[in-house]
Structure formats: C-alpha cells, structure tokens
C-alpha cells in the first residue's frame, strides 16, 4: 500500500530546497530507482528509510548528480540540476557526508576543516573553524593528527564538521552513525539536533528509527526503488504496519 501525505497548503508557496520528480536511475542495465518523488523545504529534516539495497544511497547520489538519473527531474532551489556537476551543486549550499566518511590519509584534522571552508551563497560564514571545534571538542584535541588515524567516531565528526565549514543550507548524512559505539552514536545524534536547530535542512539515511522519528519532520520510505510512504512521524507511527513490513521494526 502506498501512503503519500500531501504538503500543507501554506508550504506549497515556498520554493523547495530540493525537488525530485519521477526519478529513474540505472546502473548499466540495472534499473534501481523507479519514479522517486520527494520534496524538501528550507530548514526541513527529512529521513530516507528502507531496508538494505532499496535505493536510499542511489537517491542521494542522483540528487547530487554523482549517479545522474536517466529520467526525471531534480531541482535545487528551483534550478534544474540537469547537466550540472556534483561540485557545482555542492557550491549551491549542499554539504555531503558520504557513507564511508571520505577522510583522506596524510591530511590533518585542521587541513580537512579548512580545505573546503567557504561562505554560503549569501556571503555569510556562521560555521567558522572555531564554531566547528566548539561543537566537536574531540576534533580540537586532535587538530594536528592525520585524519585517517582518528577513531571511526572522530572521523565521522570530522566528515560532518568539514561539511559544516561549507556553510550549507542542506546537509546530507548517509549512515552517519553506522558502526559506531552507542555513546558516540548519541553524540552524533546530538550534533544532528544542533544542526537542525541552527536552521540547516537535512536528508538523513540511518538505521536508528527511534531517533529518526524524533528528529525528522518528514519521512520517505523506499521499497525496491519506489516510494511507499511519504509523510510525518505521526503518520508513520499511526501506521505501524509500514515500519513492520518494510523495515522489520516491531
Ligand atoms: N555501483 C553500483 N553498481 C551496480 N549496482 C549498484 C551499485 N550501487 C548500488 N547498486 C545496487 O542498487 C541497488 C540500490 O542500492 P543502494 O546502495 O542505493 O541501496 P540502499 O538503500 O542505500 O542500501 P544500503 O543500505 O545497502 O546502502 C542495490 O540493488 C545495489 O546492489
């Protein structure tokens, strides 16, 4: 069964930060996304749910043009991303925290945090190096260490911190708490809440449904590259069969 909640009429007038319409993405002959639709408004937190292999990472990579869709349309801030390169989209205010973190050997924590730093499109830099280090005191303690020698949790913080130094309007987090110890995971969720409170929109892929239900304003649930639910946490809680059937959450 598909359950798609319509946006509130008052929201319809706002230009979405991200608008995805009828996305079809392939790897060679393998047809992975089958007509994905999703909308993210400025400042919103959206979770992308689904079991392994359902197309969450591919959706993120299609939005960012790493894996361009074969059909369908992606718009960022009202502009079509067709023919645009990932780095151009990142410059439009998207911070990407990829699965696997993307930390480079031979580059210090400080260098990771200054190499991508830049003001936002409005020329403002609310996320200075100092603010990032205040948010992640562990990074301050390891400031001259080689990024690749940090613990998994510290690397994750560095990956998020680096994305914040680009002063994004949207941050995309793919499995940011995967494989981390519970206490470190809690720290990452605390940071995600702080990011939300600071007004940055986010798209989050994560396995921790309880945290997602608490933090995310809306959820999009994928099954085999199709959206089977789109709505808020209340809608999802009111339909436990959705979580049970498609995520195995009892
Ligand atoms: N580079 C690739 N080449 C071919 N097929 C791929 C590639 N990357 C992913 N796939 C396939 O595309 C489908 C969707 O994968 P995707 O990584 O988007 O799923 P996911 O929901 O993010 O799951 P996971 O949590 O396992 O990453 C899967 O069947 C996967 O095997």
TrEMBL record:
GO molecular function: ATP binding; ATP hydrolysis activity; branched-chain amino acid transmembrane transporter activity
One of the Pfam families matching this protein, by short name: ABC_tran
Domain of life of the source: Bacteria
CDD domains registered for this protein in UniProt: ABC_TM1139_LivF_branched
Source organism of this protein record: Billgrantia endophytica
SUPFAM superfamilies cross-referenced by the UniProt entry: P-loop containing nucleoside triphosphate hydrolases
GO biological process: L-amino acid transport
This protein's UniProt keywords: Amino-acid transport, ATP-binding, Nucleotide-binding, Transport
Stated name of the protein: ABC transporter ATP-binding protein
Keyword Plastid set for record: no
Gene3D superfamilies: P-loop containing nucleotide triphosphate hydrolases (3.40.50.300)
InterPro entries xref list: AAA+_ATPase (IPR003593), ABC_transporter-like_ATP-bd (IPR003439), ABC_transporter-like_CS (IPR017871), BCAA_Transport_ATP-bd_LivF (IPR052156), P-loop_NTPase (IPR027417)
Similarity field: Belongs to the ABC transporter superfamily.
PROSITE patterns linked: ABC_TRANSPORTER_1 (PS00211), ABC_TRANSPORTER_2 (PS50893)
